[in-house]
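Ticket #4471: structure output looks truncated?

Reporter: J.K.
Steps to reproduce: submitted the chain below (659 residues) through the standard prediction queue, then opened the result file.
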Amino acid sequence: MKNIPDKIPGACDTEERTCSCCAVDFFEEKPPLWKRQALITAIAAGLILIAGITVKFLTPYHTASLLMFIAVTIAAGIDIFRKAARSALNLHLDMNCLMSIAAFGAFFIGHGEEGAAVIYLFFVAESLEKYASENAERSIRRLLSLAPEKARVKKEGTEVELHVHEIEPGSIIVIRPGEKIPLDGKVTLGLSSVNESTLTGESAPVDKIEGDEVFAGTLNEDGYLEVVVEKKSEETLLAKIIKLVKEAERKKSGTEKLIDRFARYYTPSVIALAFMIFMVPAFILGQDWNIWFYRALVLLVVSCPCALAISTPVAMVSAITSAARHGVLIKGATFLEELSRVKACAFDKTGTLTRGHLEVVDILAFNGRSTHEVLTIAASLEKRSEHPIAKAILRKAYAENVPLHEPSRFRAIKGKGLEALISGKTYYAGSKNLFDDLSIRPPSGSASYKAALSGFENEGKTTIFIAGEHEPLGAIMLEDRVRDNASVIISHLKKANIRTEMLTGDNKKVAASLAGKTGVDAYHAELLPEDKVRVIEALRDRSGHVAMIGDGVNDAPALAVANVGIAMGSIGSDVAIETADIALMHDDLSGIDYLISLSRKTMQIVKQNVTAAILIKGGFTVLAALGLINLWVAVGIGDMGLSLAVILNSMRLTRVKAR
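Returned output as attached by the reporter:
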């Protein structure tokens, strides 16, 4: 399989400056199909081969046909012969040696048309394999073309267009509607929807407000944004994804390594067997050497390990590149193979089975106030805060289109909340102790509201109280919600005979409530990071192969101990990408379902490819020894046809999708 080079010609001068934008030069779109050298060679050599066969069998000009066969052999086989000579000099015989020996042998015994056909069809098979391997390059090329090369930077009140290499962290860049974001950073001004499907595979745009992160290669859809750059061009999330995918395609699975070791001894053994099939009958048993020489040549061709050699890597590369297009980064074929054996999945709670961020789920209004008014005051109070609760309230306010007021005399009340002046009046937002400390009288019907609040607290919800100077206005309940499809994904895993368990640092009451909602087989509460490691080790001892799904930060030890560590929602998280074996860029549990399906389908296809290659090659070897097939059949079906079947079977992995 063809590897993508580590150093890209035409890129930045130093290795550390290799970035997505410069790398595009190497991965420029190839010329139109009809201009490609391989295709031109295949068409021209094919026409000459047909003409040569016609001349040989329909006319008396056999010398002319021989010249045509030689021309086909040279045109299609120049690289094959060069590789064969190199491998022979290195005493490492490969499939190019097999084909070269077979072709020259066919010419030697007067079967020039079959010798030319062997080289021509092998050339076509090699071209097909190269085309399949280039799927990886095409995927990388698509990623490389995502980020623009230039960006507009605000300098001294004006906008200056600079190459992304010249832009340092801390610079302010401007992105208008419909433009791609050139560098990773944080929104400092503006409100917009950003399409992050290029990184996450998720088509729904994500709303971005001040303080939110944005990433190179994503599309700003409908708003004006000013972004403070946080990373250099070669350090962006997109650049890391490209590097990971390239490295993953070079890491071999256990099955690939086994086949490589087998192929190392296979080719010399086949040559020795062919030599014996020729020598024993012809020189020891005194039979027609011409017949047995031809059979030996057929055996060499039919035993060519092309299909077997590519049976595993072409499937693994197809799976890894397909996963990257779906927002899933698999760091190597080993982890894909390991995942197919998983019998248990351990889920972290926060950020995995739940969304990982607070959302406003209910608003209570006191003393005749409206929920709209409570939200307006709360959002105005929280406008200048960076706290997760403040962001959740602001998102709710933006969603409800409530008007915001500019607060003044903003003051934080340590451990309790905050105070600010809005439209000349003092307002407070904070914990349930706020009312007592400020001597604010309780709302009317306090018994009923306390019962409601008690129910919210039992469900693990966070309550923020809003009050005026002398009276309570209302309360806002926030919750880290269970993901919409959590129970569905858990159900799918159970149907696949995979045990599911939840790990959390929360109390048992909250853990039990969430376990009931999601349907996991078991839960473990009040865990520290080291406790999670212990649980994973025990689960691994019971089940054999365990996958741990977490956020990649506080779950790093557990991710490392599991057979396969999967980081959820890794977009923007360097730690998650570096820690886990597999990283799900989007915040969606369906990626787990997709991964299990992809891994099992990949190993199923690998087994199909290997089995087909061994059975067909073995069967054709027997037929070749008995003289029941000729060189045409050997190369057309036993080599090129089988290689094409393996490639097409492997490319079915690109159609695997999450449910």
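Triage note (M.O.): checked the attachment and the full token line is present. Residues 590-625 form the longest helix (36 residues).
Status: closed, working as intended.
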